[in-house]
Amino acid sequence: MVSIRSFVKLSGLSALLLVGVFCFAMSGEGIYLSLYKMALAFYFLAICVVLGIDISRLWFDGNRWVDLLIRVIIIVIVILFVTKKFRKSFLYNLDFLREEMDRFSVVTMLISIMAASIIIYWPNGHPLSIGNVVRLLANLIMAGIVQYTVFHLYIHLGKEHIYQEENRILAMNEQLLRFQRALADEAEERAARIRHDVRHHCLLIQDYVKKGEMDQLLYYLNQYIEDVECAGVKRICENRTIDSILSVYARQAEMNGTKVEMDVVVAEHSPVRDIDLVAILANVFENAIHGAGQSGVADAKIKMSIRQKGHKLVIQCRNTICPGQRFDGEAGIGMASIRKTAQRYDGETDFSVEDGMFVTRILLNIEY
């Protein structure tokens, strides 16, 4: 309405903000990943425009139909490249990109892309010369190198963090196995004591039979049955992996003077991987033991509840904390590991403080 000439010159640049807002609103990704994808698309667009215009001007006297044809050809090449080469790698490493992209690196990448694009699109007449074409192509190549470097840097950082997390889980597994070995040694000692006492029990039973004191014999046998049942190992739940993890950490908590209450109802077989159960339950229990131990409360306790309802696995843990302590929302290594593992099952996590207790809630969606 003000100046059609300036509109023609600057409409391309002025539309970037509006198109960017629209693309971000339509995207289901976070802001950094959305900015990366928009910058990549804009980079491919710049290639189409530059090559289409300059090739038609250099060898076809600026024929607009040649310009259009060249752009269509380049778009087809870009689509084939993205589909065959880039898309598979991008989707395969999408989790790394979501987690590793930060403000500084994305801003740096955008500045390099936009700087090259502004040089290309700036309405200064673009005089036709080999030097000018080389300068534009050099800008595009440098921007492409930045894109490529940033993309693979994120993947490398993501894999490094995955390796670190796997090493940490392996260390937790090793610790869990040590505790299990200690419990097995205790059970073996108990069995040895029982075998040693069997001889005395048999002699006493033989004596009762010889004397015909059947009432005393029955009373003694009832006491012996009660002692055997009390000495037996009680299963926490039918699932052996969960039972093993909870048994080990419950024993550790009780050794630290923390009372443990558990309400666990889980099927014998679960589609949740054992290593993921370790990553979740071991981290939850370790955080609970640490929080209860540091609370300074005499009757510190941990309440663990695990319920399987249809295709949902619900985990809730409450542990005593220091009076007046608050949760600032910052996630430690254990919480980050719990969240990451829950995401594999499209799950949800929640951490909060309620009535002097730190509460961890985890919901996993499981499919058989």
How are the SSEs ordered, and which strands pair?
Layout: H1 4-26, H2 31-59, H3 64-92, H4 94-100, H5 103-121, H6 130-211, H7 214-231, H8 240-255, E1 259-265, H9 274-293, E2 301-309, E3 312-320, H10 333-343, E4 348-354, E5 357-365
Helix pairs in contact: 2-3, 2-5, 2-6, 4-6, 5-6, 6-7, 6-8, 6-9, 8-9, 9-10
Radius of gyration: 34 Å
Count of DSSP H/I helices: 10
- Which structural class fits the helix and strand makeup? alpha+beta
Distance between the termini: 63 Å
- Which percent bin holds the helix content? 55-70%
Properties at a glance:
single chain; 368 residues; alpha+beta; 69% helix
Quick take:
With 368 residues, this protein is of the alpha+beta class. It has helices at 4-26, 31-59, 64-92, 94-100, 103-121, 130-211, 214-231, 240-255, 274-293, 333-343, and strands at residues 259-265, 301-309, 312-320, 348-354, 357-365. The protein is built from ten helices and five strands.
Question: What does the model show?
Answer:
- The structure is a single chain.
- With 368 residues, this protein is of the alpha+beta class.
- It is built from ten helices and five strands.
- The chain has helices at residues 4-26, 31-59, 64-92, 94-100, 103-121, 130-211, 214-231, 240-255, 274-293, 333-343, and strands at 259-265, 301-309, 312-320, 348-354, 357-365.
- A five-stranded mixed sheet has the order 1-2-3-5-4.
- Strand 2 (301-309) and strand 3 (312-320) form a beta hairpin.
- The longest helix is centred in the middle third of the chain and has 82 residues, at 130-211.
- It is elongated and about 125 Å long.
- The two termini are 63 Å apart.
- The model has no long low-confidence stretch (mean pLDDT 78).
